[in-house]
Write a structure and sequence with these properties.
This protein has 106 residues and is an all-alpha fold. The protein has 5 helices and no strands. The chain folds into 2 domains: 30 residues, no CATH class; 69 residues, no CATH class.
């Protein structure tokens, strides 16, 4: 099952290909009991707020414990010199299009 990030990439790829694609994500959650200092506990409640601490800690820990296929994918794309050259030409073409636009008065 793809992760939410992979799912977003798959949905975008489907949009590009002009195909209809429905993407569902499923999240299995596990309950975890942790012990923190009283100051940390009070700070979490004061800064993050009740009922939002679990998500905050989950998002904080995720990049440290999950292997990111997305980062590997970006690295592979960056290593593809022909693709990077094509992307640069496309970006430079956009900049040229904007330069040809009449100036807006204001």
């Amino acid at each position: 099952m793809p992760t939410p990030v992979q799912c977003a990439v798959l949905c975008h790829a489907a949009d590009v290909a002009n195909t209809e694609h429905v993407c569902y994500t499923y999240s299995v959650q596990k309950k975890l009991t942790i012990t923190v200092d009283a100051e940390v506990y009070e700070g979490l409640h004061a800064v993050i707020g009740r009922r939002r601490i679990s998500r905050f800690l989950n998002d904080l820990a995720r990049p440290h414990v999950i292997n990111s296929d997305l980062a590997e994918g970006y690295a592979a794309m960056a290593a593809d010199e022909a693709r990077e050259r094509e992307a640069l030409e496309w970006c430079e073409g956009l900049a040229g299009d904007v330069a040809d636009e009449p100036a807006r008065g204001g």
